[in-house]
Amino acid sequence: METNMKILAIDSSGLVASAAILTEENLIAEYTVNYKKTHSQTLLPMIDEIVRMAEVDLKEIDAIALAEGPGSFTGLRIGSSTAKGLGLALGKPIIGVSTLKALAYNLFGTDSLICPMMDARRGQVYTGLYSFEEGKMVTLIDQTVISAEQMIETACRFEKPVIYLGDGVPVYRGLLEEKTTVPYTFAPAHVSKQRAGAVGALAFEYYKQGKVQTAAEHAPVYLRLSQAERELMEKQAAQPQAAEGAKN
Amino acid sequence: MEAAKNEKDVYILAIESSCDETAAAVVKNGREVLSNAISSQIALHTLYGGVVPEIASRKHIEKINQVIEEALQTAGMTLQEMDAIGVTYGPGLVGALLVGVAEAKAIAYAAGLPLVGVHHIEGHVSANYIEDRTWEPPFLCLIVSGGHTHLVLVKEYGSYEIIGRTHDDAAGESFDKVARAIGLGYPGGPKIDKLAKEGNKHAIAFPRAHIEGAPYDFSFSGVKSAVLNYVNSCEMKQEEINRADVAASFQEAVVDVLVSRTVAAAKEYGMKRVAMAGGVAANSALRAAMKEACEKAGLSLMYPSPIYCTDNAAMIGAAAYYEYKKGVRHGLDLNAVPNLMIGQR
Q1: CA nearest to A43 within chain B
Q2: How do the residues of chain B divide into helix, strand and coil, expressed in percent and rounded to 5?
Q3: Chain B: residues touching A (Cβ < 8 Å)
Q4: Less Cβ crowding at N or C end of chain B, within 10 Å?
Q5: Which domains does chain A possess?
Q6: pLDDT in tens, B112-169
């Protein structure tokens, strides 16, 4: 890997819009906004702002790191199509990073378990369980979409202190306080939500492992089917013959 | 020097993702289509009996780069040779529009090219500029698609006055609903068109709605309901339905209204030239009836080839060119506007 390799990182998976430019050693610029304006209007101007502020020529960018999901479907697609457009025009690859892993990476090096939770509506959260062992992030429970209560139970079975973070925390705070049977804390404001800096830092790890996609190949990871697909599958499960017919 | 630059050819890379087609095209000087790449999702949405917005948005993301690359490749040009990026930013499905808009903005930004946002329906109108390179405003345009039914005066490039609109269903929407009712499935337009050729268009008298005080407006919910009622009453009486007759009679009712109002409006507004645009403009019965009526009334008629009637990006490139020439530029904060009005800037 070139020592001065530069990554442009983007996260628009939730309420936060965030963009960063970084090398492996340095976070050169990061712009994070957690304010209700549509990412469609804010994300590219934010990227432009840090590019100009850091006096970066876009051609110097070696790869685009992107929070690939899970998250808000529309938010993911705004980030994805922005990254794909940049990748197409610059001829650069995309490094997709799990939104949940990037959230957990905010708490690098902690001894506690890390449980990011993003509000997935319909009584569920996008969540997973992570820890750090000798400076490496370990996945204990892979990313999934389940009820907050189910995740709390699962996390508590490890009988270790846990840190909760993500935009699901304010939604389920009461439940977390009531049901968590191990010592727990809530991450403080500066690391409790998505940050493109963390997406970029993890992307350097992925880059070394060759986890790189072309801009054309990349697509968001939703973890959920669309409602129409779900309903169709339920209908087909109820009528196996109809399912056969639909496939043909 | 400046004059030489102004006369130079303008190449626009156009992107369209407002509904269920992911499309990109390279258009020269607003008239010459160098490529017209389209990835259709129709087969996928057929499973659901209509376009599912979330599925459409997901498919756009999966295909958009390939479609853009195909458009550049077919044109034999690179991004660096383009003069601007044109993109549909409304009206349409918001999630679908956002994919094209974010992609176009990022490409324009990274390639250092101006960005021109285009109204989807103004794109449909501009398909006529591709069909005939000498066709120019002013003219009267009947816009008929799955989402829109408008009679519009195109006064000059990019200047529109709406003189008639639908009060309820769009013409294409009524085709889809009737097609579903008689078991033809989605998409309804081409299926009804085909079946109607085998039927008698005078078999059943379906109503033609007139709107009091608005002679050029349309209403298609009445004719749709009449068809549904007819089908229901036949089923109640256990009578066999002649689907070809239903299709032909329904289509005749819609075509009759579209043609008579267009010709009347042309007379009223002193327009000698009439154009059609949108997916329903590909309907063979509408094309034939409009041709006959215009010939009788001494009007010249223009309509795009079927490939430029349905959603495509070439038409967006044509519309973007005239906006570009006028100096219209959009910023990095351009948003999708799902209910964008014709002529709105």
Answers
A1: B333
A2: 45, 20, 35
A3: 47-48, 52, 54-55, 57-58, 61-62, 64-66, 68-69, 79, 94-95, 98-107, 109-111, 331-336
A4: N
A5: 7-100+194-225 (3.30.420.40), 107-191 (3.30.420.40)
A6: 999 999 999 999 999 999 999 999 999 999 999 998 999 999 999 999 999 999 999 9
